[in-house]
Amino acid sequence: MKAIELDARRLLCPMPVIRVQDAIAGLQPGDTVTAICTDPGALNDIPAWCRINGHEVVETREQGDEYLVVVRVGVSA
Q1: Which DSSP state fits 70?
Q2: What pTM was estimated for this model as a whole?
Q3: In a domain, 64, yes or no
């Protein structure tokens, strides 16, 4: 299984979601992407995108001024 970290700092909606989408396109089901964002909207936007596209949000958390969203790639990748 592959785990990557994605730097989406200083990007505003919809760019964090687009970066996650682009990263997932090159991964296999079961791999994970950790998106590190500074846009608080990412805590809602990325999970919403995941629900629509069959991916699983493993964790969301605030870490200081940053927001982390961990996504497990689903079979639709």
Answers
A1: E
A2: 0.94
A3: yes
**Helical pair 15-25 and 42-53, crossing angle rounded to 10 deg:** 40
Tell me which residues are annotated as active site: 13
Question: For residue 31, is it within any domain?
Answer: yes
**CA 20 → CA 13, 42, 55, 59, distances in Å?**
12, 10, 11, 14
**Boundaries of domain holding 47:** 3-72
Return per-residue pLDDT of the chain as tens, 77 residues.
999 999 999 999 999 999 999 999 999 999 999 999 999 999 999 999 999 999 999 999 999 999 999 999 999 65
C-alpha 75: how far from chain center = 16
Length of the chain: 77
